[in-house]
Design goal:
The chain is of the alpha+beta class. The chain has 14 helices and eight strands. About 30% of the residues are buried.
């Protein structure tokens, strides 16, 4: 799945909502405390477990007092959580966020921020409670999820604060590692944000997925392919096979830690060749690869 770029108008509307929250919190320093955000927005947070059916049913039964919609068919929430393997959800009628208690703390942080994102985008409440034909279309679902992700990123990375900090460091996985610690977010979300929101003049590609030397049957090679705005302006999207071939020229067989780096040539939209530095790191769950623009490919001039 390639990253969805929001329209300027949509991004601007979400930015305004996030700015109000951060101002209401006194423009905090990183890492952002989500407890403070929930208190400001008067949001309730509860937990459930996808691995314990009885606990999930108990949680849902307690929500039946919330209103007629939940009371009439509480099984709708139960079915959605189990069938879609949901790790979090937002119930707009009660301003309540539900989180899967079995998820690691770092992932819960992103999931909670994502659901807060749904709560602060005005048109999401209508979509989540209203026109089911519209919300069930894949295109609409992907769009509202991308909008909630954008809002979550703007919150957790404190809008311009992350961009300023990222631009003070050289592009690379070392910078991503450092920023992960400073802002208290996951490696993957920091990686994604770094590509989309820093060094705007430098084309970058981010790859999140399986180890290129240890493919898993039945699973896609890349869960996400992230292209920076500068990359999209200058280059066409590369095929999955092209990206895999590039990674296999340098990736080691070890299953965790740094997997190596290598210079790869990519042709731009005008047919000119440029050199990118690919570097990969595996945390055993995902392989993260950052490809950063280096220079035009040198031309050999005959005598």
């Amino acid at each position: 799945m390639r990253n969805i770029i929001l329209s300027r108008g949509t991004a601007s509307d979400i930015d305004k909502q996030v700015t109000k929250i951060l101002k209401g919190l006194g423009n905090p320093e990183p890492p952002l405390q989500l407890d403070d955000v929930r208190e400001l927005l008067k949001l309730d947070r509860r937990y459930y477990s996808t691995t314990d059916d009885s606990f999930l049913r108990e949680t849902i039964s307690k929500l039946t007092v919330a209103g007629a919609q939940v009371l009439k068919r509480p099984s709708l929430i139960l079915d959605a959580v189990k069938k879609l393997d949901l790790r979090a959800l937002y119930l707009p009628d009660r301003k309540r966020i539900l989180l899967d208690s079995t998820q690691p703390d770092a992932k819960q942080r992103w999931n909670e921020a994502h659901e807060i994102g749904h709560s602060l985008i005005p048109w999401h409440e209508d979509l989540m409670l209203g026109d089911q034909e519209q919300t069930l279309t894949p295109g609409c679902h992907d769009q509202i999820e991308a909008e909630a992700n954008y809002a979550a990123g703007q919150l957790l990375f404190l809008q311009a604060q992350f961009q300023i900090a990222a631009n003070d460091s050289a592009p690379g996985l070392d910078a991503v590692r450092s920023l992960k610690g400073a802002f208290g977010n996951t490696y993957t979300t920091t990686f994604w944000r770094f590509i989309e929101d820093s060094h705007r003049e430098i084309p970058m590609i981010g790859l999140i997925g399986g180890h290129p030397r240890h493919p898993k049957q039945g699973k896609p090679n890349f869960r996400h392919i992230i292209e920076s705005p500068a990359y999209r302006a200058m280059f066409d999207s590369l095929s999955v096979e092209h990206l895999l071939q590039a990674m296999r020229t340098y990736c080691k067989y070890q299953k965790s830690g740094p997997l190596g780096a290598g210079e790869i040539s990519i042709v731009d939209k005008r047919g000119e060749t440029h050199v990118f530095l690919f570097e990969s790191f595996s945390n055993t769950y995902d392989c993260l690869t950052l490809a950063t623009y280096q220079r035009p490919h040198a031309r050999v001039v005959g005598l």
